[in-house]
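Fold these two proteins, one after the other.
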Amino acid sequence: MADALVNWLLRGQRRRPQDALAHGLVDEIAADEAGLMDAARTWIAAHPDATQPYDRKGYRIPGGTPSTPALAAQLPAMPALLRKQLKGAPYPAPVNILAAAVEGAQVDLDTALTIEGRYFTELATGQTAKNMIKALFFDVQTARSRDVGDGHPPLERVAVVGAGMMGAAIAYVCARAGMQVVLKDVTVEGALRGKSYSAGLLDKAVARGVSTPDDRDAILARIQATGDLADLAGVDLAIEAVFEDPALKHKVYAEIEQVAPDALIASNTSTLPITLLAEGVSAPERFIGLHFFSPVDKMPLVEIIRGERTDEATLQRALGVVRRLRKTPIVVNDSRGFFTSRVIGTFTNEGVAMLAEGIPAASIEQASSQAGYPAPVLALMDELTLTLPRRIRQETAAATVAAGGTWQPHAADAVIDRMIDDCGRPGRSGGAGFYDYRDGKRVGLWPGLRDTFGGTNLDTPFDDLRERMLFIEAIESVRCLEEGVLPSVVDANVGSILGIGYPSWTGGVLQYINQYEGGLPGFVARARVLAERYGDRFSPPALLVAMADRGERFE
């Protein structure tokens, strides 16, 4: 029972059929439906009096019941282990599973099934299940079923320009999907280093038994590492993944057009406006943003960004590429930061701003974990490196001023600048950030945070800390919808969960507003309280207020 709980029931993981066979959950594995039927007939013929083990006289639960001394000694630790696993996040399923297993093991089978049914019904009819089913099934299916158009020539030969971490990973997923890939860097040595990323992933897959040497060799053979621009001749698609500098990107586009004038060109930029970058190409209607997320081989989302002049055919062809890569697309319109980078920036800024308010760092991390975020906010900042948001902030401020606007500093700005300039702690890649690191591994929050920023503010309600992070992302998403950056509610909910780690129990940024206690009016009222306490950034946008007044929801 302990093994079933710890290794199977409470983890909520997908497992391979081979795992089920090895642990006795199934008797045999078949390769296809015909093999399944043949194996079933053979098994039935060989076991004419077959019964389930638990229906046989004298059956005992393997490992014993909760009253068995060995198991009874372990059970008191189970709730603590479960709380550690969930980090306080509001996911009710593991709690109900544990309760059903322990209670059901102490009664007869029929009663146990009744107990399990009641716990399951509670989950299935609960708001969390409704949120997650809507987002992770219906919304995801809607996003994946977008029209890719008919009659567009297939994009078979792809160039990835820039063999750094992102470029190398994009080359891998394209080759894995069967595309021929030209991976170009400034030098062939740099391109080969990028190709070695694919080799490393494939070697691990072979070692785990989920791939074969032949498959590995076939995928690697589809990646051509080069430093020669001429090798890009004839590519159907060119994905640029170089440093976030418009001038450099424009130079790259000009080089691509020299040798592949008919190629569809895409940028993997995470913040720079696609319309701005399209000024560097001769056919802006065939230019689009394809924003991948790191690690590319694992992250299921691609954010497709339409520039002002991107045409429908280019969008459909981009959707076709994402479908071929077996990833989920969201489609957004152009703006600085698009949707995902813009919204996650509000989350990280909010966490850092709490430091400036003297809130203990451990409380900030605990609040983000209990809200359900996969990574605590300060730990995430360290992973991103503090220099990245500062550079984005500086570029955005310059663009705002150049457009005649006024730049409003955020409370997080001074904290980030001080960490970099005064403390010399730029994040994990620099060996020190909000956390200390030893041999590249996080070992704990930096003790100097208390002396540097204070940490004696114990008066802020913990619920406020948790909800500030959830609310600020939801409010910014409404602004994206209001401004036309987001074309649909589905894009917001899917993109927030699959791309930037918004807690899945919410159903996504806009579903979180729908399901908040009191619906949209309740959310608006709470947002106004937060705005009064912590700043105008929490003021509900006009679109949200109008929808609340009309009794509407985000659908």
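Now the second one:
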Amino acid sequence: MSIHGELPELAAAVLQPGFTGTTAPDWVRRWLGAGLGGVALFARNVESPTQVAALTAQLRSENPDVIVAIDEEAGDVTRFESRHGSSRPGNLALGAVDDAELTEMVARDLGRELADAGITLDYAPDADVNSNPGNPVIGVRAFGAEPHLVARHTSAFIRGLQSAGVAGCAKHFPGHGDTAVDSHHDVPVIDRSEAELAACELVPFRAAIAAGARAVMTGHLLVPAWDPELPATLSPRILTGLLREELGFDGLIVTDGIEMQGVRRRFGLEGATVRALAAGVDAICVGGDHADEQTAIRLRDAIVAAVRSGELPEARLRDAVARVRALAAWTTRTQVATGARAIADAAAEALVLDATVGFPAADALLGSAVGFAAARRAVRVTGTDAGPALPVSGVPHVVEFAPPRNIAIGSETPWGVGDPLAELLPGTTAVRFEAEDLEPLADPSAPVLAGAGERPLVLVVRDVHRHPWIERTLAGVLAARPDAIVVEMGIPVTVTGGVHIATHGATRALGRAAAEIIAGVDVPEPAPQPVAA
């Protein structure tokens, strides 16, 4: 058959569209029968592991080799546990512990759960070095701000995930950590020299490749040191020249959401798709916002037209399709090989980890026992002479300050300390404030203090250093209540309060771990540590 006769099938093979619903829509099933190479699952597609397993079985009944991908970072960004919050700690928390074996164990535990549900590609781990603490989109999604620490845990996460037969995907190449702009909305610029980029941004990606990462996700980033004109997703110099030829990566290159404004605003959906493939991308992720058949048709037809016009070389499309099929074949082989020992290994690891940290297993909690135990190791407590003793005496009042969440994290995932603390200390009350509630007030501390009375006061924040309205409110509250406990569930740049508890993320597991410390549930070190002078 000629290339022109095959074109629609080849074009469909490089797409990874999203869709709505918890069962496979008719259009997705038709497309799978006509060569669609992959799909991307989002929180809207997930009700339970059993339901996802049924969904992926539907997909494979149409195409046994389909790649089923999900953006599951097992942290603040979670799709598989979006209804409850992740029962694992997330990257920054794992970086704070800095135990690569623990990171590998958590990732292997995650990989088994995803594999059991029929998922074969995870758009994780985040390999960015969060060197800018004001970064609006990465933050706790990164393992940290030091490139070699990030590299250690990126490679460990990939080893763990892939040992369960789920392909790991290091993102966002060549590094989204030193940005002040969210690429969902605009094009971030990484204004560093080649030497600086090599010493920081590229270190974790080199480690990911050395660890055998099966996939790399591109970032919609402008990096003038390598390409002053095109964002990385569309840059032959960055994808083919740097990632393929200089770094030696031979796996699948997949885009971040092609509908994001970092590439779409200038080039459009179709233009960005064609340029990405021509630059060296193998798979197009789409459907976070455009989860419909018409979008898939537009992209498929644009690819077909580009090959026919010569804008996209035939050989480049065939190479992309070959890499998609190679990844699908790898996941099938590896999941079969690892499945037989998965249950015994998982049980053994959970017992070892729980014994190591001195906590009972998390059987009574929905989710990962390994994840809850790992989260407890990540929490850090500091205090002042004015701070209260832990655990608290009496029933606390919890005030949670809710800054706007970026698109990657989403708005549907619950977070905080109020709910788990109420489970442990019945009678606990909680209230949540957003910027619009407090920012206009002359004294924003007044409504915060009003609900507390003389009870222990717990103030829960996320990235307080990035939100002036929270900083201002905290200053007023702490002036009146220097004994208040501050729980920072973002990056702990600002340490304040009578007691400061840094969870290094806002997952359900980390919220539970902080609540256990406050309530005094089997805490190995109940007393806060003094702040260094």
